Amino acid sequence: MSVVYGTVAGLLALFYLYGGGLKVVRSREQLRPMMAWVDSTPMQAVRAIGVIEVLGAIGLVLPPLTGIAPRLALAAAIGFVVLQIGATGVHLSRGDRRIALNVTLLLTAAVTVWLAATGL
Asked: pLDDT tens, 89-98?
């Protein structure tokens, strides 16, 4: 794993481990101040998104570190691009124009895709 990929993917993984972990363990009331969309989403879906985020974060880092199926990191990064496209759509459909974090995560995931695909 290159230093550049490790840094970018590591930071992205930390964000998703944190955010996904919160979605898995916290109640709707605890999530509401950070994620207003949880009010209109079934908690099973919120938990599923959290599990996907945690697994994706692991997939960004563990395969390249171990050398076991390192192409899974590319799949995880692509998954985060798709996830952020969907998340941005959800925010915009709710009239929420505060999508700077979504765009930042989308761009970071896209850079991670590029780094994983090129082996940098």
From this structure: 999 998 888 8
Q: How many CB atoms neighbour CB 26 within 10 A?
A: 17
3-state helix, strand, coil in the chain (%, to 5): 80, 0, 20
User: Residue 14 corresponds to which tokens in the numbers above?
Assistant: 């930390």
Task: Note the pTM of the prediction, 2 decimals.
Answer: 0.92
Burial 99-118 (b: 16+ CB within 10 A, else e): beebeebbebbebbbebbee
DSSP calls for 73-112:
HHHHHHHHHHHHHHHHHHHHHTT----HHHHHHHHHHHHH
CA angle 104, 41, 23 (to 5 degrees): 60
Q: Identity (one letter) of the amino acid at 36?
A: A
Measure Cα distances from 35 to 1, 9, 91, 96 in Å. 33, 23, 10, 11
Question: Which value, to the nearest 10 degrees, does the dihedral of the CA atoms of residues 45, 48, 49, 52 take?
Answer: -160
